[in-house]
Amino acid sequence: MSASSFKSPEPVLCAGIDCGRSAFNLPLKLFFLSILLFSCAVPASSQAGVKCLIKTDRKEQFLVVQAIVRSEEAVSGGYRLVLVKHSAAGTSQSIQKGSFALRPGSDGLLATTMVDAADQTELTARLLIETDRGTSQCGLPE
């Protein structure tokens, strides 16, 4: 992911609004930043027994994004994690995909990505889980 020479102390998530023109810009920035900093877990839809989760943690100027799958039963399938970052430097996209197999009652770490969030940043993430039972998806922000 790219970095720019423009530095701001915290990353910003802007969920579908024009960040530069909103009268509530700072409170919205703080709200979405707190979602990121307190390890957001957003299950949007899940199939029977299989759930997806996107977790974030702050590490200095970076955000660590983790894609996690949970299941009460043994399951295998595939996943696709898409991250889109908008900043003063431009837009970048990261796509990670692969396969997984879980034992009953376990969690699986599917992918970990570090995003440079030192500048004013809008980050969206989507995780899609596909198994023979159907599809689960979750996102950030939701």
What does this structure look like?
The chain has one domain: Immunoglobulin-like, CATH 2.60.40. 9% of the residues lie in helices and 55% in strands. The protein has one helix at 25-37, and strands spanning 43-45, 50-59, 62-71, 75-87, 90-102, 106-116, 121-131, 134-140. A hairpin with a 2-residue loop joins strand 4 (75-87) and strand 5. The longest helix has 13 residues, at 25-37. The model is unreliable at 1-44 (pLDDT under 50).
Alpha carbon gyration radius: 16 Å
Strand content: over 45%
* Strand order in space, largest sheet: 1-8-7-4-5
Percent of residues in helices comes to under 10%
Q: Report the total helices.
A: 1
CATH architecture assignment name: Sandwich
In CATH terms, what is the fold-level topology? Immunoglobulin-like
Query: How many structural domains?
Result: 1
CATH class: Mainly Beta
**Main sheet record:** 5 strands, antiparallel
Low-confidence stretches: 1-44
Structural class: mainly beta
Give the H and E element order. Answer: HEEEEEEEE
The total count of strands amounts to: 8
Mean pLDDT: 76
Q: Tell me the span between the first and last alpha carbons.
A: 22 Å
> Globular, elongated, flat, extended or rod-shaped: what is the shape?
elongated
